[in-house]
């Protein structure tokens, strides 16, 4: 047999390349929904059947097949479910308070997401790392029944150790604690924080990989970028804040990065819990019983402000949900679109939606950091600024430290905040969680922050972009070509 293989190995290799290449090309053509993605993968496979098929096997196939993706109504049973349902907002309520066009945003969210737009919520912006960490640690210290904590990065630094100590203390008090950390994010610290949590009795798991023996390559590109902390089912924290001292002025001083996190109460807390609980079940196979995690209805009466909805997205049944929400929001804008994003790499569809809105007379302002922690991403996003600037959109480079905040407002009425960046990774590869908020006062507060950033920012102009050296612009375009994987 070995002799035959030695003689006929070129023929065997040829047959294998045909079978592998054809299988991979057929799979790409039949499963990819984006024609450019399908053409790209088929082209790579045809040009190099074995290598191309291998690359497609590793990076091209979405293997996330979540057996249990349930919404709040599947988790909540009996009377609890009925009481939460009474907080659902109606289309008439949205139209009466915000206009008919925002009723269409409610309809879009109803059809895209698993979670309802609910009334009687509250949301408070925590504008610094110190403020956010202090509020989160205080909530953990007061926990009586359950803590569900999901995050992307949980560093083993001074801030991380404070959270570890608080979570261990909660376990000692008899509080049920679950901590879910992304496998890639857990590797930002070496050694990871997992050992400290486990040694303290905290039940912890990683999302999509084993950080001790190494990541499973086919899954490494699909990460949970969500940040959700739910305490006793009554208060939740979500937004862009990872757990690391780089965002603490107390520790990092003037070099600390900026970010914005949000404290919420109301029915939306149950939806955030449902999202995190589904992720926990996917990673650990443990089902968290809603009744045991204090998911009680809020104290406020149904029908009151603020209207909010949790929006989960990711490479499963929620693929591109955040992308579609943004498309819908841009389409209903009449006066203003205000965006703050650290990584701004929209695809062609989003660019078209933004420039179309600008051509309709909508003022489009996009604020990105002057100082970026990911220089390759910064160069890549600069390469496509001209596509927006030539069609009346305005782009601002905010001064000061790197700002990791993600927030958007439409017409001073509708806001969108959370973990999603406006880049290919957040819009297609990551598991993200955002919150849409129907409330004028909250939108006005965000816009004041955006106006303050713009007041000291440098406006990006077409003339300035084109005046830079050709080699710099060429390098940016080359990096832009690889932007889906940055």
UniProtKB/TrEMBL annotation:
Signal peptide: none
GO CC aspect terms: extracellular region; plasma membrane
Enzyme nomenclature, EC number: 2.7.8.-
Keywords: Cell membrane, Membrane, Repeat, Secreted, Transferase, Transmembrane, Transmembrane helix
Span of domain PLD phosphodiesterase: 220-247, 399-426
Annotated localization: Cell membrane; Secreted
Pfam families: PLDc_2
GO molecular function list: cardiolipin synthase activity
Regions crossing the membrane: 7-26, 38-59
InterPro entries: Cardiolipin_synthase, PLD-like_dom, PLipase_D/transphosphatidylase
GO biological process: cardiolipin biosynthetic process
Broad class of enzyme this protein falls into: transferase
Main location (coarse class): membrane
PANTHER family cross-referenced by the UniProt entry: CARDIOLIPIN SYNTHASE, PHOSPHOLIPASE D
Protein task: Could be a virulence factor.
Protein name per the record: Cardiolipin synthase
Taxonomic path: Bacteria, Pseudomonadati, Pseudomonadota, Alphaproteobacteria, Hyphomicrobiales
